[in-house]
Design brief:
Low-confidence stretches: 10-29
Structural class: alpha+beta
CATH architecture of the largest domain: 3-Layer(bab) Sandwich
Radius of gyration: 21 Å
Number of domains: 2
Order of helices and strands: EEEHHEEEHEEHEEHHHEEHHEEH
Number of strands: 14
CATH superfamily of the largest domain: Hsp33 domain
Number of helices: 10
Strand content: 25-35%
CATH class of the largest domain: Alpha Beta
Strand order of the largest sheet: 8-7-4-5-6-12
Largest sheet: 6 strands, mixed
Mean pLDDT: 88
Shape: globular
């Protein structure tokens, strides 16, 4: 990163909670949705999510296709599934950091269905179009087999809940399932996949979470679902849903569960959309955290600064005069401290 360039969108959120900022744009209807439901008389929860359009927009904004787009899409769907596990307003930051060429993926998801994300090295893997006709496409080598999986849950309270487990396979849904079982100690099945065409562009993105409820004795049911969805079973459900033009959450949940869905009790559904609340004001705040000497160098050497949002790619340019104003304000803040 050059001195005239900075980035907003930290890997793990600090005091700034992006979903609490005022939202001026109207909620878009994309067809993507999260479905929350119960099966077997309430022994287990089932959450299904479709995010085709949201993932497509993220991939387009970052200019990625193929495996980086698949990694981002599966992570976005996983984040949406993780953000539905409480009754309260919740933001989840889901991050995978590995030793593969992509290096990592970061996703912010909210229980309302808003999601954003980015790949750390988005252009590190060249697309091989021969992979498209034979899903699922494995991304473990691109993510890496050594590293960490981290989840931060923010319920709007004084303290966030965070957990972390070691990376093992690099396959996003397997890593999330392992995290839920190991770190949060909840027996769970997670399946996420993203389909692409020959050009590596997104054609479908969806996921399913089945999880036993406390004191509900649903372990046997969860294990049955795990056996049902071994291997490429969920991917084939998504392929069939796309072929029939039925990439919606309830269809995918029922098709994936098969006979186990006969008593599926739908609780609610919510729309899913890409959303990033970055702003010029936040970009200015990012510059305001730099040292005065760094700001001075930007003024003398580059005569401007450009702040790029990691999550959506928006760029905010600041002139020499604006940088000097920020530098002076920074100096006053330090003097008062």
């Amino acid at each position: 990163m050059s001195q005239s360039d900075a980035r907003i969108g930290a890997a793990f959120p600090g005091p700034y909670l992006w979903y609490r900022e005022p939202v001026s744009e109207a909620t878009k209807t994309t067809g993507d949705q999260i479905l929350r439901s119960l099966i077997d008389g309430g022994r287990a929860r089932v959450v299904a999510a479709t995010a085709t359009n949201a993932v497509r927009e993220m991939a387009d904004r970052h200019g990625i296709v193929g495996i980086p787009a698949i990694a981002l899409g599966r992570s976005a769907v996983a984040g949406l599934l993780l953000a539905t596990l409480t009754k309260d307003e919740e933001q989840v930051t889901f991050q995978v950091l590995g030793d593969g060429p992509l290096a990592g993926v970061t996703v912010d998801a909210r229980s309302s269905g808003r999601v954003r994300g980015f790949v750390k090295r988005p252009h590190a893997v060249v697309w091989d179009r021969t992979l498209a006709p034979s899903p699922p496409i494995h991304i473990g080598d691109a993510i890496g087999k050594k590293g960490v999986v981290g989840v931060v849950r923010d319920l709007g309270m004084a303290h966030n809940y965070s957990g972390q487990v070691a990376l093992s396979t690099g396959e996003i849904d397997q890593e999330v399932e392992s995290y839920l079982i190991t770190s949060e100690q909840i027996d769970s099945v997670v399946r996420c996949d993203v389909l692409v065409d020959g050009d590596g562009k997104i054609t479908a993105a969806a996921g399913l979470l089945v999880q036993t409820l406390p004191q509900a004795h649903g372990a046997a049911l969860v294990e049955f679902v795990r056996d049902t969805l071994r291997g490429s079973a969920f991917t084939q459900v998504l392929v069939e849903a796309l072929a029939q033009g039925k990439v919606d959450a309830e269809f995918i949940a029922r098709a994936a569960l098969g006979d186990g869905a006969h008593d599926l009790q739908v609780l609610e559904s919510r729309p899913v959309e890409f959303f990033c609340p970055c702003s010029r004001e936040r970009a200015e705040s990012t510059l305001g955290m730099l040292r005065q000497d760094d700001l001075k160098d930007m003024i003398l050497e580059d005569n401007h600064a450009e702040v790029t949002c990691n999550f959506c790619g928006a760029k905010y340019r600041f002139s020499e005069i604006e940088l000097e104003r920020i530098r002076r304000k920074r100096g006053k803040d330090i003097a008062r401290a």
